[in-house]
Amino acid sequence: MRLHTLGRLELLPSDIPGAAPLAVQPKRLALLAYLAVATPRGMHRRDVLLGLFWPDLDEDEARRALRQALHHLRRFLGDGVLVSRADESVGLAEGGFWCDATAMEAAVNEDRTADALTIYRGDFLQGCFVAEVSAEFEHWVDQTRSALRRQAAEAARSLARQEEQRGNGSAAIVAARRAMELAPDDEPAMRELIELHLRLEDRAGALRAYQEFDRRLAAEFGVSPSAETAAVIERVRAAPPRAPVEVTAAPQTTVPPPDRIPQAVAAAPSPKPVGRGRRAPAARGGVLLLLAVALSWVIGTVLRRPEPAPAPDLAKLAVLPFHNAGVPPDLAWLNEGVADLLALRLDVPGGPRAVDPAIVLNAARRIGAPAAGEAIPEAALAVARRVGAGQVITGAVAGTATHLTITASLIVARDGRTRARASVEGPADSLPSLVDRLAGRLLSAEAGLADAQIGSLASVPLPAIRSYLAGRAALRGGKYAEASRRFQEATVLDSTFTLAALEVLHASFYVASGGETPDVGRARLALAGRNRLGSGDQALLDLWAHPFATVPELLSRWREAANAYPDRAEIWYGLGDAYYHDGVFAGVLEPFRLAADAFRRGWALDSVRGSGLSNGERSPMLNHMVEIAQMDQDDETVRRLVRAGLSSDSTSAQGQYLRWQRALTEGDSARRAFWEHADNIDPGRFTSIYRFTVWTGIAPEDYRLAAARMIQESEAHDPENAALTRHAVALNGGRPREAARVLASALSAASVSFGLPIREALYWDADTSVASEAARRGR
């Protein structure tokens, strides 16, 4: 768990970018923040908490409110985090969870100034309103807010000194200005900023900083800077103006020059080209005897301990005996019989594995849980944890000797959250068919299918449903050939299974040659059953069966699909990708902000549900999220996303590109270090870097290095591609005649794409008539 108190107050289930905050009442979150941050750290008396948070209630009502608040917090935090003592005190276990305020203080104390400033994203409990608390609590918030802000300001001043000592003048200026933003009335900090500008021979920067400070003091307080500050600025004014000196060394390149888009992600505004170079022997026998005695005691102690419960595994599922909700006595066997049959039916490749029902029943008996009585949530979760299952199914059987109703719930063992519910009814003599339908509905709901889709599976046999869901699992895992095989298997088992035919089309984009040839046979099957699909699936069918459409049509279909299926990560990724690549050309306002929003929605769903999209869908989306954050100069988000990407893919070409994006946020030395190992970089990454720098204007030095590498890599085996790169470099460099000569001398007329003459015509003073003629000839 991660508690954010700086900039906003929220509790997150993990550090995965885009994870949705937990829905906790503001007063309970404020109580958690107090327990985590208030000093002295540790335990806090309940009577103090009553006075701070419920000052207007009598003691009994206040104690009841505190108990309820602590109960709800324990549900979110899990066992062992929120602890109580017999002396009427309550607190947080050390290391129980992460809090940004205490993490920032630790970073300051350990002189990790850059880390401290990265963590400090805003004032303590900024914009947080907690109703009906005491004035003492509000006073504590104000004091804590001021103290943390002072610490952040001091960290920024310290970082400025460190960066100057390293010879990184530009980074020192940035840190010194951050110190002034955090403590705008601090004249000593202002003098340090002025002196820093002066030492860097930036007289204009020193004067500008002073003038801004002077104007603010006059406007807000009606005063002027102190005599000491005025004396410093007079010294600056007396100094002769000089050209600023570059403090950091120019990047050294081993490649001769030829004759670098997308918090949790913050909403990114439409990008503008950013021209930043961017940038962290007698006694021995006694000792042996003592060791032997101690070792024997440890071994004995360990052997006497009970065997610990296995760690919960989300891939393992415990099916508890069903509750008898009113069936005749002669059908009491259904309590365990339905559970046994359901456990067998839930054996889906790539899905959850059912724990042996006998092991589940034995665990229930050992902890005293009812074997066939009414389901008790706490007991069900305890059984699941005892057998190491991350999920548990509870349910009930009701009805008569001729007609049954079976209901079931799929629950996450860690937090008690209900993940799926299902209900079926039918003749009692068709029990296997009823359980098949129940299993299919549970599996479909757990896999994220919408209610309309689940309803459409009523007549689909369970084997076909199992193949279909196995295909979805393979698709989420990036196993596209396996996904396609499973979906096709489902259509063979049920030739009217339109949803499976639709997903065959989806998978075919990843396994077909060229990536754009849909499976024609399944396309016909899906199109024939189009009227049996919901509006969202019809939009997806139009996208996948007819991939060539205008940009407005594509965006409209993706939006319709996202509205129909807001819980499918891959739909949000598709919508974001459409905004990202095509939004500008369709005249969409702020397309990159819309892309970032869609990517963030998909990432949050992907993270929470663990779909694990990779290689085909998730990696490009991660790249785009990093790139958008890079264009927005949001270094913290870039590093967090890169960290998440490298944690699962650190050695591939994808990881190399992410490392380059991270190097941009760490300064010139990191960028130089990246290019010093260019010989070990996948050649395809040079193309990614080249395209990013061309589009955004970020890191122009790296543009030249990437272009040189692209030409060098392709000259030997693909001279025409090398010539195309030289042509593009010449156009980007403002040398159209040279670009034309490259085309004329190195490329045959047959190999010239019809797009090149169009672009050249538009480059030459945007001659649209020539471009239109070139387009006509291309058609």
Overview of the molecule:
- The protein is an alpha/beta fold and 779 residues long.
- Among the domains are: 2-149, no CATH class; 313-536, Rossmann fold (3-Layer(aba) Sandwich).
- Helices cover 59% and strands 8% of the residues.
- The chain contains 34 helices and 12 strands.
- Strand 11 (403-412) and strand 12 form a beta hairpin.
- Helix 7 (169-182) packs antiparallel against helix 8, helix 18 (480-493) packs antiparallel against helix 19 and helix 30 packs antiparallel against helix 31.
- It is flat, with a radius of gyration of 32 Å.
- The two termini are 58 Å apart.
- The model is unreliable at 243-308, 371-375, 513-518 and 608-616 (pLDDT under 50).
How large is the count of helical segments?
34
Q: Give a short account of the largest sheet.
A: 6 strands, mixed
The CATH architecture assignment of the domain at 313-536 turns out to be: 3-Layer(aba) Sandwich
Average pLDDT number: 75
- The low-confidence runs, each spanning 5 or more residues with pLDDT under 50, are 243-308, 371-375, 513-518, 608-616
The whole-angstrom Rg is: 32 Å
Q: How much helicity do the residues have?
A: 55-70%
Counted beta strands: 12
**What fraction of residues sit in β-strands?**
5-15%
Span between termini = 58 Å
